[in-house]
Write a structure and sequence with these properties.
The chain is about 25% helix and about 20% strand. It is α+β, with helices and mostly antiparallel strands.
């Protein structure tokens, strides 16, 4: 047998052996001899589409108490920095607390997928929600609110008397414990702190007049009408019900020399300048500032301080605006 025939015979024998082995186990597959590692299948997550409404969210919103922020962002979650002021209602929507106070604010974080946006939510009541007609008089319905707006278009109820009136521990021009010495507790505490700081700075002032009842204001305005005429009297004095003094949140302050009464020249004194520069730090504003008579209805009174709380006082001071301007209707639901 030649060599080629020998190799052919060997190959044939090996083939017979392999076929025999496979026939003994017909389910056996040679692939089984070399198993491969199974790679688990991976689900590709659906890509989250961020709606345009999310990118168009404002950086600031001004809303009244009890207002629901219906932001209409599908799939979004919300987190409030101050849940007692702004919390999620039963529908999962952010809602301002019903007892929220104008001037309060908190940060709302809106999240969707890995994106976040923050909205500064400020509380401010709407003027139209706090007025009613009483015998032809536009009468305020929230007289006890720290930020109640009283002016020639918005009158306090004739029978309104603030609760808790007290005499602050500051010097007055008179010694009697009479009504014009009184303030509401929050205003009394603030004026005490302000006078203490003024004294530290070498400024010495006196209280001239604080609370004034409806009847007292009625008599005072009548006297001014008799001496100045009604039109002129209305420039510097309020009719009964339209005086901020009735709120118990207002006080007139002055320096030691009050011989000639309260005068605009107080603004140019060290005391008047100190008040203008520092009153807001204690929650007070000069209620009737210079060059704002067309807005407030009253001439410049640098001595007339109104307590509004530090949040709003700082805002009014920085923006150089009046309380009327602060409450402009177009400021509501503002997107900035």
């Amino acid at each position: 047998m030649n060599r080629g025939g020998y190799y052919f015979l060997v190959i044939m024998l090996l083939s017979i052996i392999l076929l025999s082995a496979c026939s003994d186990n017909p389910e056996r597959n040679l692939v089984d001899e070399f198993p491969t590692e199974e790679i688990p299948s991976q689900e590709v997550p659906d890509q989250v589409v961020i709606p345009d409404e999310f990118y168009n969210l404002p950086s600031e919103m001004i809303v009244p108490p009890n207002h629901v922020l219906d932001l209409l962002i599908d799939g979004a979650t919300y987190r409030s920095e101050n849940p007692s002021l702004l919390e999620l209602n039963h529908e999962g929507k952010p809602q301002v607390a019903a007892d929220a106070i104008t001037g309060e604010f908190t940060m709302l974080t809106v999240s969707i997928a890995d994106q976040q946006k923050e909205i500064l939510v400020k509380v401010k009541y709407a003027l139209s929600d706090t007025i009613e007609d009483v015998n032809g008089v536009a009468t305020i319905t929230n007289p006890a609110d720290i930020l109640v707006l009283v002016n020639k278009e918005r009158s306090l109820p004739a029978d309104y008397v603030p609760e808790g009136l007290m005499a602050p521990e500051i010097p007055f021009y008179f010694s009697e414990n009479i009504e014009k010495r009184w303030l509401r507790p929050e205003a009394a505490k603030a004026i005490e702190e302000m006078f203490a700081k003024a004294k530290e700075d070498g400024i010495h002032m006196f209280g001239a007049s604080a609370y004034r009842s409806y009847k007292t204001q009625e008599a005072l305005f009548s006297r001014y009408v008799g001496t100045h005429g009604e039109e002129e009297a209305a420039r510097f004095s309020a009719r009964a019900g339209q005086s901020e003094h009735q709120t118990g949140l207002t006080i007139d302050v002055y320096h030691a020399n009050i011989t000639n009464g309260l005068e605009e020249a107080f603004a140019d004194t060290p005391e008047g300048q100190w008040v203008a520069e520092n009153a807001h730090q204690f929650g007070f504003v000069i209620r009737y500032p210079k060059d704002k008579e067309e807005i407030t209805g009253y001439s410049f009174e640098p001595w007339h301080l109104r307590y509004v709380g530090t949040n709003v006082a700082n805002e009014l001071y920085k923006k150089n605006i009046t309380l009327e301007e602060y409450f402009l209707e177009e400021n509501f639901y503002t997107f900035k």
